[in-house]
Amino acid sequence: MARSRTKFELIWLLSTVVLSTVASENHLPSLLSGVQARNLWQLFVDRRVALQFDILQDDNTEGTLISVFQGRTSSRLLFSLTTSTVNNKILLRFRSASDSLKTYTLSAPLNDGQWHKIIVSLQGNRIDLSENCHQLLSKEDDELHFRSVHHPRVYVGQQAHHHNKFQGKMREFSADSSNPVPIRCPNLDLMLDNFVSTKTETPHEGEQEQAVDSAPDQPTSSATENINWNEHVSFMEDQIKQVKLMLQGVDNRLKKVELHQRGCQIAGKIISFGEKQQDPLNCTECQCSSTGELFCNPIGCPKLECAHPVLSPGKCCPECHNQCFYNGQHYEHGHEFWPKQCVRCFCSNGRMDCQFRRAEHCPVLSCTEQETPANQCCPVCTNIDHCAENNPCDRNAICENDTYGAKPAFRFPFWGFFGNGTLCYDVDECIWDENAKEQLGGCQLGTMCINLPGAFKCDCLPGYQRLDDRNCLDVIRI
């Protein structure tokens, strides 16, 4: 289907996102294809589905955002989400484990002429529903259960057979397997005064089609007045749980702030959170983390690209020496080669030193299997464990047996350590620029970088909660 403002683009992603559709301002998708419907319904069966809608609904209208039916022709409703700008209500309906239809009715200011992002997440037994990052519903429901069906029928923007169509604009509909709220709404507002009413109905066999194809039941004034006290108690219990969670988050944040204010103690004095204290004599540094833990390690250095970095006296980080130009070629400082028989050349800080070696000066070997490398004068032992006999490798490198001797290799070939393997230096990943962080995975949003030998860690800032190894989000709302 060609891309235009009057048609949809249905995008299939093979990872976590099941389907996503971007609608024009005045046209909405209707019936999903069989493959799309089956994939979407499987997420319901697995109880790990999140639906996102971005809508601008016309005034004084009632419409269906999504509806799911059992079979190709059956009118048996399995799930639906409807909105109304007549009474500013959102209705979530699903067929429960007991085969009854359960309805949650929530209030939202849908008739304000603004766009509304509605997210419904069903994860396990938990139902979450938010509108423009305002949490309207969050509770456990043991009746949340969806059975596998062979041919589910999914409508977007209408109930069924062009009935109860959504009137307005829908610029996004997407279905995902994970809850997007923590990323979309890092500062989710808890609507403590939003009362949620529930209703359970078991339609008779002959009444199911009429009940399903008709518009969703709207709570009347008499029904609202007769809401039983059990619902009120359940509502208050849910609100108390939300308040407890919010207070627990505030308490955790206060504890982290207190740790930040206390800092870390070192050598009889206090250093603040994030502060570093270096000892240039021993080439060590200590850093205070956001949890009050003190990390003391060798000083990290900027990574150098030369093959043989040189550590000058009195310094903690090495530097690159000059290359040599010999016979039309450039050689790294520290490079050794044998251009002709018994002639050894060595590049030393821009100066190439070549010397003739005599065979009579070769050491006496006790091994039985010996071989002289090309152009060299002295034989070496072969078929032995060179790493066990004479290991020249740094403790942060791996010793590998080569034909004529030991060969060092890094434990962290991309980052962590650098050098020639005989001497290894720690890379300070915390001084990476933004490009390096993006390419190599450095610490990002809401974190503080702590350098470790051969690695690094990203501590969350006070009041932030970990999103992954590299990012933290401010999820505490006061």
UniProtKB/TrEMBL annotation:
Signal peptide span: 1-24
Residue ranges of domain VWFC in the record: 262-321, 322-382
Protein name: Uncharacterized protein
Keyword field: Calcium, Disulfide bond, EGF-like domain, Glycoprotein, Repeat, Signal
Top-level lineage group: Eukaryota
Domain EGF-like: from-to ranges: 426-473
Organism taxonomic ancestry: Eukaryota, Metazoa, Ecdysozoa, Nematoda, Chromadorea
Gene Ontology molecular function: any one: heparin binding
Annotated organism of origin: Steinernema hermaphroditum
Classification via PROSITE patterns: ASX_HYDROXYL, EGF_2, EGF_3, EGF_CA, VWFC_1, VWFC_2
Membrane spanning stretches: none
Positions of the UniProt region annotated as Disordered: 200-224
Any Pfam family matching the protein: VWC2L_2nd
One cellular-component annotation, GO: extracellular space
